[in-house]
Amino acid sequence: MFVTSNAHKFAEAQKILRLYKIQLEHLLYAYEEIRADDIKQIAIESAKTLFRKIKKPLVVEDSGLFILSLNGFPGVYSAWVQKKLGNNGILKLLSGTKNRGAYFKSCIAYIDSKNQKVFCGEVHGIISKRKKGNNGFDYDPIFIPNNIQLNSKYLTFAESETLKNSISHRFNAFTELAKWYSVYIR
Ligand code: IMP
Description:
By secondary structure, the chain is of the alpha+beta class. It is built from six helices and eight strands.
């Protein structure tokens, strides 16, 4: 069971786990996260709190966008900053900045009555100069992953769902979870 109020996150996770024939249910539930600087710690604490309530094997994810020239901002505040500033606000903050490097990070915490595990994944790239593409969600239209081209063009995550779902931070983290789950739980 994936506890999240974000339908995009669930859809991406389900596609990845299907490759390993792992069934994932969606529990659409908005919960309060602890305040911390580390998304791994936030994921672990959220999983523990939710397991005490739900008492069934579950996963939760915490993720964020980390911009190098802004010392990792918005990081753990990514959801809030997306609501308040949006992609236009981020593009404004970076106008005139040469170093546009950034990465997404996702940490997934799994918990059941016997096991607690956390898996993290990253994808590195740059923040584009303008928004491009209509797929995905939130920062996808301004994130271009490194070293991947389609027809000699660099694409944002919002321009190619297939590309995103094969290299994203979420893909990397859920793939690690799936490999572990296939060996130790199933
Ligand atoms: P949280 O994990 O619910 O704290 O939210 C993390 C926030 O990071 C999301 O609400 C998005 O704003 C941003 N984020 C995380 N992963 C992605 C992604 O794959 N695409 C676009 N934005 C993302």
